[in-house]
Amino acid sequence: MFGLFGSLKDIVPVIEQLTRLPGQAVARIGLVLQLLLLISGGALVRRSGSFLGYIVLIGGLLFGVATALFAWRRRRLEKAVDKWVMDRMRTMVGDTGQVRLDYSETYQGHNPAESHGVILNQDGTTFTSSRPTDTSEGRTYSHVDTADAAQQRQLRHDAMLEAQDLRDTWLPRVEAAQRSAVAAAGGLVNAPYLKDDLRITLVSGLVAVIGLPLGFFLLILAAFALL
């Protein structure tokens, strides 16, 4: 369903942010519309017990439950994405612990490479890299980078296995894609927005969207019947 194994972990935050305003509009308009359907349907049933009244009442109830569920799950997803974005920003700011300054006047007479771009730590001491390197064959390798690369390969392998494991459940490809995304992210702690079952959010959102035109149609019929 998705081009790359585990790509859902990168797609979900983007889609949520792009569809945030439309999603909020669907939830709010839908809730008001379904409430009006319940009121008008109840009025029709109480007045004459007509078949139309029961259809309007049942429609308002079904679409209302789906819209309320979508509004709740959409709000949880929005908060999880916002928290994830803020955590990433804090991590990026926290990792930037050096300040780059120009001490050309202080280092007059030295090699230009030594007199410009001095890097200081936050406590004012000169920054020096402490990562062990291997300079064999004219190349420089970082053992830390090698370990990170091995971890990324393992995550991709786990994501591939989860994506290929289609279980006997409803919307199995979406369920497998979500498990694959969690594995690719290294767990829910790195992707909290994948904690809730995305299938419920997708289906409830689809029903909520369908309920808008159908709800308006039923509301017009109920208005004519009540006049």
Radius of gyration: 28 Å
- Main-sheet strand order equals 1-2
Tell me the structural class.
Answer: mainly alpha
How many β-strand stretches?
Answer: 4
Q: Quick one: biggest sheet?
A: 2 strands, antiparallel
Q: Please, what is the oligomeric state?
A: single chain
Task: Give the overall average pLDDT.
Answer: 80
Distance between the termini: 50 Å
Query: What string gives the helices and strands in order?
Result: HHHEHEEEHHH
What is the percentage of strand-forming residues? 5-15%
Helix content: 55-70%
Uncertain segments = 97-108, 110-121, 126-141
Number of helices: 7
Shape: elongated
Q: Overview of this structure, please?
A:
There is one protein chain. This protein is mainly alpha-helical and 227 residues long. It has seven helices and four strands. It has helices spanning 8-18, 20-48, 51-95, 112-115, 143-164, 172-185, 198-226; strands at 98-101, 118-121, 133-134, 141-142. The strands form two sheets. Strands 1-2 form a two-stranded antiparallel ribbon. Helix 2 (20-48) runs antiparallel to helix 3, helix 2 packs across helix 7 (198-226) and helix 3 packs antiparallel against helix 7 (198-226). The two termini are 50 Å apart. The model is unreliable at 97-108, 110-121 and 126-141 (pLDDT under 50).
